[in-house]
Predict the 3D structure of the following.
Amino acid sequence: MNSSTPIKRIAIFGSTGSIGTQTLEVIASNPDLFSAEILTANNNDDLLIEQAIKFNPNIVVIGDEKKYIKVKEALAGTDVKVFSGDKALEEVAAMDCYDMMLAAIVGYAGLRPTLKAIDNGKAIALANKETLVVAGDIIMKKAVENRVPIIPVDSEHSAIFQCLVGETRNRIEKIILTASGGPFIGRKPNYLVNVKREHALQHPNWTMGAKITIDSATLMNKGLEMIEAKWLFNLKPEQVDVVIHPQSIIHSMVQFEDGSIKAQMGLPDMKLPIQYALAFPKRIANDFPRMDFKKVSTLSFEEPDVKTFRNLALAQLALNKAGNLPCIMNAANEIAVFAFLRNRINFLDMTDVIEKSMDAIPFIENPTLEEYFESDGEARNFAADLIKL
Ligand code: NDP
């Protein structure tokens, strides 16, 4: 980029998480291109304070209102404005002081601030896949109405987005999402029933937040990504395919109507899709480690085992049936993962909780936004009652 390119002001919603901290690394490496204008956290006040002192944003928001005084006092000698609470997240998302939201809050909690940002015409770099899983039709419609670009950060969707550059007139036959398979690839239910949270939190290729790491181990993450891809790229369910690729070198592929397949590859490093989303349509130089094909002896592929990893089958059902079913599935999954991380249920119980919730909550074919909110609440209550949380 040349010296006349204005600095892009970034609002990082979820700045203390895995994606948020890596986004700040990208910003720190490119101070002439990006500034951190808004930073938000839920509980992690110490890291938020540290980030605010280092990056001097305009605004910080701490979700937990009990932590407001501590953050305010710690930043008393600076110009940083401090807010707290869920409402503040939405109010700040509607402010004029930034250009692009990096949506990196985990789970359903990311939906409302992202909606506010879209309503106010902000470009979105989207890491928070749950937003599209819950209300993808409404989000994409609003994005079109407000002429808001939604640029994926998820590595698979960034790969597809990159493969599609220059292909606007060409029909996609299908997309192929790659999945590492997580730490339990090849395992069967008699093994999975005994796995502990510590084991499930060890992902072979990626270091990520706890929720997405468990979702990767159950293959729910790939299911969420199928639904995310449908909305992002305007696809029919049958155009979204999944293949297990344990090396995580091919980040995903697009097959065009002439049978030609484009793939995007690289070492697994989330800073690359983050940087791509922030700088799009430009690529910017960096010193991230490079892939050496002479050292990669194997790229292998296999069918996902949906009989063992039934979360992926449930997500395929939600993808096909649509309506409020993905929203119900997502809510039940958030409760199930929460319970598993607290050793309240075992690994396979998570699937049972999700399946029963999907059966129990009334199906709505064309929900309004309010109905999505209600379905989310009903599914959470139902799942929590099942687990006796
Ligand atoms: P983390 O758990 O590491 O971070 C989550 C962030 O959201 C933290 O800043 C956290 O604050 C904040 N947060 C959590 N709950 C709330 C809430 N209720 N209200 C407001 N803020 C909240 O998650 P990740 O960074 O791993 O993932 C973020 C999103 O990006 C997810 O949707 C995930 O699926 C997606 N994603 C992540 C990838 C990765 O490599 N990590 C890859 C692709 C997509 P605090 O720290 O204070 O708790």
